[in-house]
Design brief:
77 residues; alpha+beta; elongated
Length: 77
């Protein structure tokens, strides 16, 4: 089973090579560097679904928050 987590893009590092474009993504305060090659439309402030260091798609803030709320509920159980 695979798990992808929503995070907010807080900065983007452009690169001449599009496949090397990366960004800093915040997962509730934990910041990781993520490859943005699959989401060339991504911009600072967007929420992305991230799996094994790759942003797979952009989602709206409401959907991201709903998913994060589910994770909190799971932790409480």
């Amino acid at each position: 089973m695979c798990l992808a987590i929503p995070g907010q893009i807080i900065s983007i590092s452009e690169d001449a090579e599009p496949l090397m474009r990366t960004g800093k993504v915040s997962f509730g305060g934990v910041v990781k560097t993520v490859n943005l090659a699959y989401v060339p439309e991504a911009k600072v402030g967007d929420y992305a679904i991230v799996h094994v260091g790759f942003a797979l798609s952009i989602i709206d803030e409401g959907e991201a928050q709903e998913t994060l709320d589910y994770f909190k509920q799971i932790q409480e159980v």
